[in-house]
Design a protein that fits this description.
Length: 331
């Protein structure tokens, strides 16, 4: 596709920044034109910059962004304009939002990420900072909407003005995957590769298995301190070793996963988020009730139908949502 024309670029910039495509913002001087020349007709770059300038009518704010783009490109003369602009936008967001954004690198390209699941995972990981008068989920919704407003994620299934899910643009996903790898925030692996690809212990592991053969994980010392494990693709075999570190376990559509594979689930003492989607699972082991910190249990992809029997595993808990995704609070 061709880049946007200069006039169309300008309309897009002002539409996203001020809610109007009018070009009558002469008080800003030449800053908008110079910013657009650096964006080079790339819609995502224009949208990203305009999100930083939303409702900023002062000329000084526009000059400041223009200078930041210039210094970023000067420090990386060989880098593409898009990378420099994304980098500036990334470092512009608050630190707590950076963790939430980097966490999205565990999901594959074009994956539709359910808002409810994502926020519950953020809570389990400890990314949500409690505030007086709001519960963690409400704060997580604010984080989610803030990332949408900053154009770092794209809203999906919008109803009554609220997005039920989101996606990450491919270019942004590539950027945050690189950042997550640099900071040892997320380790992404193809299941065909050996697990030990880093000199550091893995903190969050994402495995994509494109192979037909079952792959066995969790036998390596490098996974002893892993905080979350997410599986996509073909079946993956697990050895559920006792772990004080694991907070999030999402086994996706691991069709080879059966009931007896979960026998050691009660040893994952600090597990807060558990998602199972295997059609081979018809019930959970009794010791699942020993997961005293569990907050979310998602069994929508399994063949567990007897929710009353399942709730007996948590008889000392108050279940306040029971629709295939269960949320718990002690009491």
């Amino acid at each position: 596709m061709k880049s946007l024309s200069f006039e169309d670029s300008k309309r897009l910039l002002f539409k996203r920044a001020f809610g109007s495509a009018s070009l009558c913002y002469t008080h800003l001087g030449t800053a908008p034109d110079e910013i657009l020349r650096k964006c080079d007709g790339l819609p995502l770059a224009i949208i990203t910059i305009s999100s930083m300038l939303a409702d900023q009518h002062a000329k000084g704010e526009w000059d400041s962004v223009l200078n930041d783009i210039g210094s970023s490109l000067a420090k990386n003369p060989g880098a593409e304009n898009m990378t420099a602009i994304l980098s500036m936008s990334y470092f512009d967001i608050p630190h707590h939002l950076r963790s939430c954004l980097l966490y999205l690198s565990v999901f594959p390209e074009d994956h539709k990420i359910e808002k409810q699941c994502l926020i519950n995972r953020w809570i389990a990981e400890g990314f949500i900072h409690k505030e007086k008068g709001q519960n963690e989920y409400e704060i997580g919704e604010r984080y989610f909407n803030d990332l949408i407003n900053r154009s770092m994620i794209q809203p999906v299934r919008v109803k009554y003005g609220q997005a039920k899910a989101c996606q990450v643009h491919d270019i942004i996903l590539d950027y945050i995957k690189c950042k997550a790898a640099e900071e040892n925030f997320v380790t992404s692996l193809d299941a065909a590769e050996p697990v030990y690809t880093s000199e550091y212990k893995v903190r969050r592991l994402c495995v994509i298995n494109h192979n037909e053969e079952n792959v066995t994980l969790w036998a390596d010392e490098i996974l002893s301190q892993v905080r979350s494990v997410t599986i996509f693709g073909q079946p993956v075999k697990f050895t559920l070793l006792p772990s004080n570190a694991l907070r999030v376990l999402e086994l996706g559509d691991c069709r080879g996963m059966e009931c007896h594979h979960l026998a050691g689930i009660g040893n994952l003492f600090n597990l807060k988020y558990l998602c199972l989607s295997s059609r081979s699972i018809t019930k959970l082991p009794d010791n699942v009730g020993e997961l005293q910190h569990l907050h979310t249990l998602d069994v929508r992809g399994t063949r567990i139908k007897n929710y009353h029997e399942l709730s007996q595993n948590f008889k000392n808990w108050h279940i306040y949502r029971l629709t295939g995704m269960l949320d718990f609070q002690k009491g």
